[in-house]
Specification:
One of its GO terms (molecular function) is pyridoxal phosphate binding. This protein has 458 residues and is α/β, with parallel strands linked by helices. 42% of the residues lie in helices and 12% in strands. The protein has helices spanning 5-21, 33-40, 51-62, 84-96, 107-124, 138-155, 161-164, 182-190, 211-217, 241-250, 306-313, 343-378, 400-413, 440-457; strands at residues 131-135, 173-177, 198-201, 224-229, 254-258, 283-287, 299-303, 382-383, 391-395, 419-423, 426-432. The longest helix has 36 residues, at 343-378.
Length: 458
Amino acid sequence: MTDWEGPLSEAFERATTYLQGLPVRRVGPRATAGELRQVLGGSLPQHATDAQEVIAHLAKGVEEGLLPSGSGRFFGFVFGGATPAAIAADWLTTVWDQNAGLYAAAPAAAVVEEITADWLVELFGLPSGTSVGFVTGAQMANFTGLAAARHAVLRNHGWDVERDGLIGAPPIRVLAGAERHDTVDRALRFLGLGTSCIVPIAVDEQGRMRADRLAEELTTDQPTIVCAQVGNVNTGAIDPIEEICRRAHERNAWVHVDGAFGLWATVSPALQPHVRGIENADSWATDAHKWLNVPYDSGLVLCAHPEAHRAAMSVRASYLIHDEHGERDALEFNPEFSRRARGFAVYAAIRALGRDGIAEIVDRCHAMARRFADTLAANGVDVLNDVVLNQVLVRFGNDDELTRNVVRAVQHEGTCWMSGTTWRGKAAMRISVSNWTTDEQDVDRSAAAVLAVAERLR
């Protein structure tokens, strides 16, 4: 009889010990790559090893090399953590091991994703009937949204890109802010459009696209996609979505919104005015593993034009079983064929938190970002951005070398973990507050550590 209890019990004990220790754990890896290779490596195993022993060896071996991104004092990148309900559902997702491409292969997964998709559309305040795809992250969400856009704008110019490809097709212009995220460029490369199709639109001092400059580039003579941004990766700044949509649609352009973390601002009554008019866009990309705090990987793409979404993604083959009653096949809405049933964890997160709980996470992260900025500014640190969401961009002594040294030293010190960046040609520390557990004590302790490191290095 197969021993499930041994390895799963070992994993449970290791997991709960890790999660319970996050509030006091040093925030940063404690082993080098070489040390990890020495502990975990060796020659290819020739014989079987007891499964529980393997799990114990793996957990012990990686322990010193983990970056505790689930900590309330982890402020690097825009990662978020994971809520208990989402983690538990994700574990069950692995146990159930459903291939969520077709309804026939995973009926429960298909229905849960359908329900969750409806919840997400309502949560974000998007048009009824908006289609949803569950993808790996914002990279593939941008890819999928832009694939739907490519289909639609070429169809409007009499070209079937899914049938005829891009050779001989009318050239597409992509109007995107000068401070767009690199996933947009990468998605355009994947789609065969290349980055030379991008027309960079000037941005203001916070990184917001200037709608007046966008208007100067819009034309009805050429297939056009406008890429707007909700949440500049450095400053958190939000493009003027309402005006962008109005101007773009006057010229028959498709508007795609890269809202990897910023789309969740729609859930907060306090922050919603910043994204007024976002429902007028044509497609949206976001991550559930950011502000919803669902485990990796969990991206979302939403499209106001399901027919374009399906045209870009769907597949038919003689061996595939499509439900005769028209039940939802997930592969019609994402670029994968076989894939994990990501909808279970998103469903659990939303059901456990509710709209109010999600809004509370967003509002608290925003408040903690403001607290960070106010504390550092009061102690002579240069805060470079208006804190409109969860991003705080700071610089020390107006000095590139000092700023980079502070970032490295803070990461090494271990109280908290922030990432460095370059903005407007200058080095900066980027503080991203995205974790559902982060509170005042985490911020105050982390700010004190940053200030102490900066003072020592000066």
